Amino acid sequence: MSDYLNIALPKGRLGEKAYSIFEKAGYDCSEITENSRKLIFENSGKKIRFFWVKPSDVSIYVERGAADLGVAGKDIILEYSPDVYELLDLGIGKCRMAVAAKKDYREDPEKTLRVATKFVKITRDYYSSIGRDIDVIKLNGSIELAPILDLSDVIVDIVETGTTLKENDLEVVSEILPISARLISNKVSYKFKFDEITKLLADLKKGMEG
Length: 210
Ligand code: PRP
Hints:
By secondary structure, this protein is α/β, with parallel strands linked by helices. It has helices spanning 13-24, 31-34, 58-63, 74-80, 120-129, 145-148, 163-167, 187-192, 194-209, and strands at residues 5-10, 40-43, 48-53, 69-73, 85-89, 95-102, 113-117, 134-138, 154-159, 170-179, 181-185.
C-alpha cells in the first residue's frame, strides 16, 4: 500500500465532484464511475488509490493514516477538529452553516435557547462567541423537523439551495460561516510522501484553473 497515494473520497454528490477534479488533474480511475458498489479503486500507473467513505468519516481515515489524503467539508473539519493538514480549498460543496427558525419565531432573550443540530461543537462555539446560553439537542438528520414539532426553538444546519428550509416554512435567522470542501492530509504522510503530495497539489491547482 505504501508506495500508493491513498485518497478518501466522500460518498455521494460531493465525492463525485471531487473525483472529477482529480480526473481533470490527470489522476483518473475510469472504473470508479462504472461500479457503484465497489469501495476501492486504483490506477496502478499513477500509483493512486481512491476509497469511498461516509462523508463524516473522511477525517477519521486521514487522521489515523488509513488514507494519506481526503476530501472533507469545512463543517466536518470544524466539528471534529482532526489533527490533519488542510492543503487546499477545492471550491466545491459550497454552502453555509446557518441558524434557522420558523418564519414567525421571535426569540426570548430571557430564556435558554433550545438548538437542534448535528453539529454540536460548531453550535457551542458559535453561541459561546456571542455569549448566549443554549440547550443543545443532538439529532442525526431531518433537523428541520425540530422547530416544527417544538422540540427546539432554532436549528443550526447546512443550507445549500435553501429549498429544505423553504419547503418546511423555516428561514435563516443568522449565518455562522461559509462551507466548502477541502483537501486534507495525514501529517505523517505529508512528511514521508511530500514529493508525491506536492506534485498532486500542483496538478490539482492546474486542473482547477483550466
Ligand atoms: C443537508 C442539510 C439540509 C439540506 C440543505 O441535508 O441538513 O437538510 O442538506 O440543503 P438545501 O438548502 O439545498 O435544501 P443532507 O441532504 O446532507 O441530509 P441529512 O438530512 O442527513 O442532513
